[in-house]
Amino acid sequence: LKPGRAHNYFQAVHKIGISWAAGHRGGIPVVAEALKIPGCAYIMTADEPSGTTPEDFTRIATLAQWMRENYPDIPQFVQLSITKADHDVVIETAKPDIFSFDQYPLYADGSLDEHYLYNVMWARQTAQKYTLPYWMWLQSFGRSVNKLATDLRMPDEADIRFLVFTLLAHGGTGIQFFNYYGYGDGPPMIAQNMVDDPYVKQPGR
Prior knowledge:
The chain is of the alpha/beta class. It has helices at residues 7-15, 27-34, 58-70, 87-94, 116-129, 157-169; strands at residues 20-22, 40-47, 76-81, 99-102, 134-137, 141-144, 174-176, 190-193. The strands form two sheets. Strands 1-2-3-4-5-7 form a six-stranded parallel β-sheet. It has a two-stranded antiparallel ribbon with strand order 6-8.
């Protein structure tokens, strides 16, 4: 999400022939500096924005338009939390190349978010309406804020198969994961990743 802090990652993976991707934080100047490093696969122009009118997405649309004018071959998209923003307004304002959202439905008590499959289908319908590729960030972490009703469990192998195959069955074409280790300026929480980031010192290590 913060490309200005990740140049070492981008340079390292490009050196061994792997593409890299980044978020939007810092705006055009920070994104432009990161894009001097070859090998970008995509830029995420916003993360879970809220709002219902075009004015709510002016900043996002500005970055998206800059990407189209200066790097037309690099895809860009808004990352949605499925219920936080009006899909039509986001797409018609920012004009993303991909429809992408995140959903983390595996609860610590062993249950599944009852809206999960509905949301996967809702996202499919939006992607089809605008003839966009359909991507999703899948849950690859466990997270606790000591509220069992909303705490998330660490997925096991069966959970990952379930998440991947439900997306594929609904026409998904992009499967994404991320390492999660909490917010530095947010509420206290305990997070576990399926794969630890070797560049980040984990608690207790």
